[in-house]
Design goal:
Two copies of one chain form a homodimer. Chain A is α/β, with parallel strands linked by helices. The first copy, chain A, contains seven helices and eleven strands. In chain A, the strands form two sheets. A six-stranded parallel β-sheet of chain A has the order 8-7-6-10-9-11, sandwiched between helices. In chain A, strand 4 and strand 5 form a beta hairpin. The radius of gyration of chain A is 20 Å and the shape is globular. At the A-B interface, helix 2, helix 5 and helix 7 of A face helix 2, helix 5 and helix 7 of B.
Chain lengths: 253, 253
């Protein structure tokens, strides 16, 4: 059963009311019943709630928060900066990487992005992508819905990266022949300070020379290869994030 | 530029003729020219070939094999056994995992597979999936096209697994809470004998209790989790294969 994301802070013993779209979904589509349990998430934490009443006509579920659930989030956050790609590729990228556990997405207009979105289209696309992230997070039993943001230039990323400590930025680079994530990731041990990883994936046509220079020299991103097989833009991020999460023992122990 | 797969054994100095669908693609779609280079692959090895003549009308490219290319294949083969899933999910699974480097696929009818294919449909589906694998392998610059096979019962896998030495079978198991690939994979060092990994992924509805028992007790598969986030069937394989290839340093060094 998918999780409900609540916008209020929860505590044990609290009574919650699920209405709106979620209420409709749980009463009319999933047809939950009084006495059953459902999982809710709020402020990065999952809770088990016991259903006290179901009003299918009004589409409202009333439940009591009974216990906190173990975290489902990676202890080592991974962000994906993805060059804007064609068609519905971004939809799939957000859906799959949200399931996998990405903490947030930055969709970036690049020199070779065929797609450029004006501010109106951008808003409607962002709304769509955030909905996809929320649904995928709910299905995947996550504690948070990943952030989805849009950037129209690499420089916009600079301040955000600068504001973070203990962050490694990996630039997936077709020109890099040797260094992979296996050697670029810091050695992992339980004693090490929790690090954040940012993976940077280009659009279909890759990055131009100026952009590459900005990533490597201004943003201090580490160029890495994912090996000799050419991955498409919609596969590369998922593969890279899987490798990082595996490295940090966040895909099971 | 995508690679051409040749069915004949190649050697340096040999003249090759590319006709048929490939010839059409290279002359009319990609519009290669005399003097350019293209990559060809045969018997698990990649070669660079120098184009001597292009006949666009007949759709024929003539080229000379000039050198062997470094291997693009994983030194540690990974096979994917995938429970038959609905819609075009298998298409995507084959495409993405071929890019990533999977050595072969076994599509398996399971108790909870909604799709069951009669022998006629099976042949046409297999033809379609093999075409997808070939195209993805060509785009990804692989040295081989992965094998695509179909099984109508788990027991059919038994002899195949038994015929292989140094093989680890990992059963992606929703019921497993603790052991992930990180601890289930054998310790990796350059001295270790090359191992083959087989990942077993269920269909949308998962495996039933009898099937689970067959995998774990008869096939000696190791149950593993990919962590607390619920992955869909089309994501799980790609994530698991990425973790295995990363573990064996086959996604860049």
């Amino acid at each position: 059963m998918p999780r409900v994301f609540m916008d209020v802070t929860l505590e044990i013993g609290q009574t919650i009311t699920i209405g709106g779209e979620d209420g409709h979904h749980y009463t009319r589509v999933l047809r939950v019943r009084e006495g059953e349990f459902l999982a809710v998430a709020s402020s990065g934490c999952g809770y088990l709630a016991h259903i006290g009443a179901v009003d299918a006509t009004a589409g409202i579920v009333t439940a009591h928060v009974v216990e906190t659930l173990p975290t489902h989030e990676s202890m080592y956050p991974v962000y994906l900066i993805q060059g804007l790609a064609k068609g519905d590729k971004i939809d799939t990228i957000i859906q799959h990487n949200t399931e996998l556990g990405v903490a947030g997405f930055l969709l970036l207009e690049t020199q070779r992005s065929v797609v450029k979105l004006d501010s109106k289209k951008r808003e409607s696309k962002l709304e769509r992508w955030r909905k996809i992230a929320r649904e995928a997070a709910s299905q995947a039993q996550r504690d948070v819905v990943p952030i989805v943001a849009y950037g129209s230039a690499i420089q916009a990323v600079h301040d955000w990266l600068d504001s973070m400590s203990n962050v490694s930025v990996f630039f997936l680079d077709e020109e890099e022949r040797t260094v992979g994530l296996a050697s670029a990731l810091p050695l992992h041990s339980a004693q090490v300070v929790k690090r954040t990883s940012v993976l940077v994936v280009g659009p279909e046509g890759g990055w131009d020379a100026v952009e590459r220079d900005v990533w490597v020299n201004q943003m201090r991103a580490i160029p890495v290869t994912l090996g000799p097989r050419t991955l498409r833009t919609e596969t590369a991020g998922l593969v890279g994030v899987s490798a990082v999460l595996h490295h940090y023992r966040q895909l099971g122990g």
